[in-house]
Amino acid sequence: MKPMTEAHLAILRRHMVEVIDMHFDLAEEEIGRSELSPTLRRALLEVPRHLFVPAQLMVVSYQDTPLPIGFDKTLSQPFIGALMLDLLGIDSGQKVLEVGTGLGWQAAVLSALGARLFSVEIVEEFAQAARLRLAALDHDVEIRVGDGSRGWAEHAPFDRILVTAAAAEPPPALVEQLAPGGRMVIPLGGREVQQLSVVQKGEKGAIGTRAIMPVRFTELEIG
Questions:
Q1: Which among 76, 111, 119, 149 is annotated as catalytic?
Q2: Is-catalytic flag, 197?
């Protein structure tokens, strides 16, 4: 059998986005919209997801399923990852904090959307691997190793915060570092099942939370 080429992988990537489109249409009542934003759709078609998984999983990287990446962590299924980014509502130039870099796929998509991205990862090996992958694709992302629940105070406030692990409630430090008018997307709940939620901070600091749909994430680690 021939080796898989970039052209083959691009076909799989288009198929991945078509499946995400289908999920958005089916979940319109929960999400509140029936399709991806055009800018996010373009970014998903642009970013080579297969470069952000362990090499042995490259062929299955575009399937709509979570993938193990080591250290008992997973890369979320494409639909959930795309939904979290869509719920953030990124505008080019916004300052964004990502909690949980992993191997860098969502960071790459955020960068492609024009975000000024700061990402915190508790697993040092992931942080280093993500730096290499992102730099190879010319994505300018600042990454540090540490406890993501504490945020990154030196660069606060953030217009948007993406949390890729579950917590019982929004971590107080992240709420504090969210700019007035800002938005956080985070899975909230217990160990087994959570609600993917949007946390909105009003211009005067009032906090509102909206649950979107049930999800299952690993718990946010406190370093």
A1: 76
A2: no
